[in-house]
Predict the 3D structure of the following.
Amino acid sequence: MVQVLALHVGIVVAIGALLAVLLELADRFIANYGECRIVINESEDKSITVDGGGNLLGALVDRKIFIPSACGGRGSCGLCKVKVHEGGGPLLPTETPYLSKEELKNNVRLSCQVKVRNDLRIEIPPELFSIREFRGKVSRILDRTYDMKELTIDLLEPDSIEFKPGQYVQLTAPEYAKSDQPVYRAYSLASDSTHRNYVQLLIRRVPDGICTTWVFDYLKQGQEVSINGPYGDFFLRPTDREIIFIAGGSGLAPIRSMLFEMVHEGIDRKSTFYYGAQARADLSYVEEMHEFEDKLPRFRFMPALSNPQQTDEWEGPTGLITEVVDRGDHDFKEAEAYLCGSPGMIDACIKVLSVKGMPGDQIFYDKFA
Amino acid sequence: MKQSPELTKVQEKMQPGKIVIDGMLGDDTRPLVDIITEDRGVVNGLGLTHEEIADFLDDMVEQGKAGLGDPVRVGDFTVQVEHYRGRIPCPWADGVFPKVLMRLVHGPSGKRLLVSALGLHMIREHGFYQGSGSDYRVDPKIVALMMGL
């Protein structure tokens, strides 16, 4: 009896699955939605007309409007959010786990899950219009520590980039032996923004990470790669306040880019860079940071080790980076802070800075999230 | 037990190179439903629930975060919690999680566990402890031992 019941359930499930596949195929190859108008940010200039049938993310990317996405439109990263005010159809169950109540209220959708079947009215952050896709060639791969590499990518097409120091790009890891699909990962630009024909990224190996395994074990000098960007609103604010930079690990990347900017722009603000690491082997760019001290007379580099090894012969500050910042001699109420690193480190530093009297609107950060 | 098409889809996403480089199943080739069912039996036999196991590990993660990436002592344990850039989706497609990794060492027994934020979620919400042979396998018996049971 149970077997007969199971057989019937199996047949019903199989028929259901077959019908779903047929519907999807029919939708893809037979249905003709004609041309659809996508009105973006209520602006005629920014609006586009596309052939209906595909998804919104793909339609925007085809017109060189890049929405950040880590999974390439498979609905698994939850990053490609845009506001869809009209024409997006019903919210799908594949979207809801990635959307907060606030986002649902504000018509936020995952653009990879929204089908373009009629005219749409959408809203995207204006800065995304300046995002471009770049083809480049890896001209240098340098080990900065045992688990951190610096990539230098010479830009081929377009052959130059404009970015604000502190911003990031997305690097595409193509299909390779360990992954049958491309993935896209965000990395801060570590380079000097006045050198527009190349970019540098600082990449720390993620255990079992698909992109970093490709970078560390498969990517070769001379290989062509693809990046898109720049993204983000983490950049130096044009004030005269003292600056407190705080970073750990590859969080140094955007700070390095900002220091280049300070040199080129002649920004002579009092500034201190607290760079936290466990042991000397985790520190990178130490020499270069001390060179910045020569170029920027009011800049101090303050590397700190939380767990120095005997062989490190370390005479600098020790302790967690929060403790070292806490001991710092600054006018915290008046200073500005720029933080880059793990969410745990950033949250702990914000707590210390707040206790010291720094207002929240003077704290800027780029969380590894 | 027969596996639903939904669970088969989930199992496909657990293969190497889909979400993580080495996958989530280790060398366990059984259907996902069997892996989950067997672990559920073990957890029940220990007098525990998935939630209690997840709560214990979650508490360790929270205490380990105080080290900002350095190992810290928590009672009989050494806990190291590291954050890496990016987020990772659950194969059940019910959320994305920060790349947080806890290395947990139990001093008295010398037993070790590697637990990710996603791994914790999969234990709590889906009763999935990862396949045998996976570096991220959270054997419920080891957790019970660590809990002093």
